[in-house]
């Protein structure tokens, strides 16, 4: 484990951590996810999807609670992955968390601009896509978010506490207003309550923004190095997550119950068409206006600035700390490992700012970003379920403020759920996640190639760099000149990685980390190949049909979990941590 010359200030108490978690979870998700979830799953289907999504995230969060409270390290998934399986897993986990968190401030900025278009014309088109003025507005929001995060940790935490009061009051106001005064029971019973069957429920988890809405639970994990006490980490996550699950479920009930079909101009029960109506640019605000609650619509328009703004402020901090942690462990340039005099990773914050601007340019709509953000996010989620029982075996003497009972069952169940979330994203989105992951591996090995980092030999760096570039160029040629597409790339890269892994095991100095971490890459590839050959409802070619696709997914995910447990070991990073803790 690399030496860190500057440590974080442990200024965050229990209330601050609860605020941070809830702040991240009450962002643009509550403003838009109810709309998109109901468009995929219908009224009752979307409510079930929220409960299922909350259960999935809770299972994953429980595994993180023991791990992060026992090993309170800034950066979350990166150090944990390295301590159980070595450098390769540490990088992939950190990369997934970093990329998904980099996307979050942009998606929150887009949400703010989209709602603002209700009273400032010319910001977005009728499909919710940013226009020129909208881009300018979004960039201004990103600049404000950057400046707030360049302040000290204490100011950051206090800002969250102030904003949190508002962020809880407004959703609660919507619930207590719409459910008793505007609820239509027929929307839950008569008008196509399960719009697309079970497929719609699972699609809503990913493409509807449900899993995305809960991603804030990782705030205390990523900020673990700044918590005053270890036990604050798990307490803050569980409390905030349970509260937000209840809040989102009630908001979904309020939304679907208040839809007026005649007002929005579509056939009753045609939930899939509601994203092409006036609801798209401000679901709750538009409903409030349509049913005569103009005062509530005005409040919601104001909240559309505050709620996403608070989440954007939170999430600009997290990727900076993840990337700073990655730099400490040699996965990113050392330039980004430095903290400023206030203990803030300002260099990593500025990098995240510019990358966020790039995402706004490439994905200028809320629904354009949410699917790939969620699928990338679960790459990092895998580490919690995979590591909890390994660390019990390899570091039994480390104090655990929170011990998860039943981890032998909960951990594999949570692991299978992470696998399924990738699968439920459908094809071709799952293939895009493969590309994002492999792009990270290219950076990982290319950095070692340039720096001559002692963790990898120069020959290893050359070999891995070429092993990633060659299949990419091969697939690019096929795409440009023939009718082949990404399935060829996925299969080819799978073969190349298999050969590379075997060669590395036999010949290279880094074979332990490579072999113990290769399951991670193959697991992602397997999930995406399964989505390609799965049911047509998920964009697949319908080779494996329901329910056999779920059976196959569960068995394959369980196999990868068993392999992950077998390859986990007491790494040098874990040894260094234990020795440092005992000093």
UniProtKB/TrEMBL annotation:
Keywords: Membrane, Transmembrane, Transmembrane helix. GO terms for cellular component: membrane. It is a multi-pass membrane protein. One of its GO terms (molecular function) is transmembrane transporter activity. InterPro entries: AA/rel_permease1, AA_Transporter_AGT. The chain crosses the membrane at residues 12-32, 44-67, 88-115, 135-153, 165-183, 195-217, 237-261, 293-318, 344-363, 369-388, 409-427, 433-450, 462-483, 489-508, 520-540, 546-564. It is found in: Membrane. This is Amino acid transporter.
């Amino acid at each position: 484990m690399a030496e860190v010359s500057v440590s974080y200030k442990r200024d965050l108490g229990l209330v601050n951590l609860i605020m941070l978690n809830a702040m991240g979870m009450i962002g643009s998700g509550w403003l838009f996810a109810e709309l998109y979830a109901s468009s995929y799953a219908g009224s009752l289907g979307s409510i079930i999807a929220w409960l299922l999504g909350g259960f999935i995230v809770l299972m994953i969060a429980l595994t993180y609670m023991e791990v992060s409270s026992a090993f309170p390290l800034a950066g979350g998934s990166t150090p944990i992955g390295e301590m159980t399986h070595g450098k390769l897993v540490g990088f992939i986990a950190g990369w997934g968390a970093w990329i998904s968190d980099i996307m979050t401030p942009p998606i929150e900025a887009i949400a703010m601009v989209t709602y603002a278009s209700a009273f400032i014309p010319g910001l977005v088109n009728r499909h919710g896509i940013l226009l020129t003025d909208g881009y300018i507005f979004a960039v201004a929001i990103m600049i404000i978010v950057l400046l707030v995060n360049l302040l000290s940790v204490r100011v950051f935490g206090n800002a969250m506490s102030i904003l949190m009061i508002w962020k809880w009051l407004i959703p609660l106001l919507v619930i207590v207003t719409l459910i008793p005064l505007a609820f239509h029971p027929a929307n839950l019973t008569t008008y196509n309550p399960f719009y697309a069957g079970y497929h719609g429920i699972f699609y809503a988890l990913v493409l509807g923004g449900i899993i995305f809405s809960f991603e804030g639970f990782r705030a205390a994990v990523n900020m673990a190095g700044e918590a005053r006490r270890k036990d604050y980490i798990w307490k803050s996550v569980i409390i905030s997550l349970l509260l937000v699950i209840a809040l989102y479920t009630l908001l979904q009930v309020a939304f679907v119950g208040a839809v007026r079909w005649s007002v929005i101009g579509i056939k009753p029960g045609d939930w899939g068409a509601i994203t092409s109506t006036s609801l798209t640019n401000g679901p709750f605000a538009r409903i409030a206006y349509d049913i005569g609650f103009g005062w509530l619509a005005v409040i919601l328009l104001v909240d559309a600035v505050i709620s996403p703004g608070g989440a954007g402020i939170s999430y600009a901090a997290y990727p900076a700390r993840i990337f700073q942690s990655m730099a400490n462990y040699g996965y990113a340039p050392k330039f980004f490992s430095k903290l400023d005099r206030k203990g803030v990773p300002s260099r990593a914050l500025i990098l995240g700012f510019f990358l966020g601007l790039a995402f706004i340019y490439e994905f200028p709509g809320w629904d354009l970003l949410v699917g790939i953000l969620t699928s990338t996010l679960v790459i990092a989620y895998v580490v919690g379920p995979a590591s909890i029982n390994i660390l019990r075996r390899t570091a039994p003497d480390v104090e655990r403020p929170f011990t998860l009972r039943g981890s032998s069952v909960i951990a594999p169940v949570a692991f299978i759920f992470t696998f399924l979330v990738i699968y439920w994203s459908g094809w071709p989105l799952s293939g895009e996640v493969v590309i994002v992951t492999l792009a990270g591996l290219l950076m990982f090995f290319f950095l070692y190639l340039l720096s001559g980092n002692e963790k990898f030999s120069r020959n290893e760096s050359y070999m891995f760099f070429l092993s990633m570039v060659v299949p990419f160029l091969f697939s690019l040629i096929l795409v440009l000149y023939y009718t082949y597409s990404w399935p060829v790339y996925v299969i080819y890269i799978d073969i190349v990685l298999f050969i590379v892994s075997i060669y590395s095991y036999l010949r290279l100095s880094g074979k332990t980390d490579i072999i113990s971490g290769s399951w991670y890459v193959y697991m992602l590839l397997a999930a995406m190949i399964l989505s390609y050959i799965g049911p047509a409802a998920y964009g697949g070619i319908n080779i494996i049909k329901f329910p056999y696709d779920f059976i196959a997914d569960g068995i394959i995910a369980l196999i990868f979990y068993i392999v992950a447990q077998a390859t986990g070991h007491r790494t040098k990073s874990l040894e260094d941590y234990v020795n440092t803790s005992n000093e």
